[in-house]
Amino acid sequence: MPTLNIFTNIPVDAVTCSDILKDATKAVAKIIGKPESYVMILLNSGVPIAFAGTEEPAAYGELISIGGLGPGVNGKLSETISEILQIKLSIDSSRFYIKFYDSPRPFFGYNGSTF
């Protein structure tokens, strides 16, 4: 159930969006060690964002997972997601924040119940 929610101030066309969703799904699944079938990626483009007082290209992400997170994994996720955003949207890694949440099972719902 890892869920990555990305916000960016860059408008993203459908093809680029699809590429980012696919690349991020593979990366999150591999790094956390969970099947791709459990991973959800959301990409919110064209969102007004000011970072360091400017509206230059920037992004913010939140990754929620039940387990699988920790200092080493989080560092690798941050590095890999920022690389995807750099390659696909030309967002410099210095203009990207990502927050990690390790959620208890009862705090995440799925299929009409909780994990």
TrEMBL record:
GO terms assigned for molecular function: cytokine activity; dopachrome isomerase activity; phenylpyruvate tautomerase activity
The record, for InterPro entries, names: Macrophage_inhib_fac, Tautomerase/MIF_sf
- One Pfam family of this chain: MIF
Q: What is its EC number?
A: 5.3.2.1, 5.3.3.12
Q: Where is the signal peptide?
A: none
> PANTHER family, from UniProt?
D-DOPACHROME DECARBOXYLASE, MACROPHAGE MIGRATION INHIBITORY FACTOR
Spell out the family assignment given in the record's similarity comment: Belongs to the MIF family.
Name the chain's protein: L-dopachrome isomerase
